[in-house]
Specification:
By secondary structure, the chain is an alpha+beta fold. Helix content is 33%, strand content 21%.
């Protein structure tokens, strides 16, 4: 065991990353707003009414496109993962703290339903 330095360490941990002491490096996974850093990821599962098994093949692909498109409509919301099952949808999404998750889901489900009912006969 080395006896040099405080706590038995020879060098400062800041020296290894070539940063001045006291300057902190933020990993790229964090996102920024004007006064905050965040990394929120929500795992959302929503089911169809009566769990009808209609999200197959072409309808499932159409729903996938619509969900990605609706996520892009809201500023700084990113769909990280999406899995369409015949009767429900798994969605992993990054939502900034300025949005309420329930309001985002209301936006998503209302617009998704209107887009599907306008373009497809289910």
């Amino acid at each position: 065991m080395s006896s040099s330095g405080e706590g038995g360490y020879d060098e400062s941990p800041w020296k290894a990353c070539n940063q001045p002491i006291g300057e902190f490096i933020m990993p790229q996974r964090f996102k920024r707003l004007s006064h905050s850093l965040y990394e929120y990821r929500y795992h959302i599962v929503f089911c169809l009414k009566y769990r009808y098994r209609i999200l197959k093949e072409a309808i499932g692909e159409y729903v996938k496109q619509q969900v990605y498109q609706l996520c892009k409509q809201k500023e700084e919301i990113e769909a990280l993962d999406l899995n369409i099952q015949p009767d429900h949808v798994y969605l992993v999404v990054s939502i900034p703290p300025k949005y309420v998750v329930s309001e985002f889901m209301g936006h998503l489900k209302a617009n998704w339903h209107s887009a599907c009912s306008n373009n497809m006969k289910i």
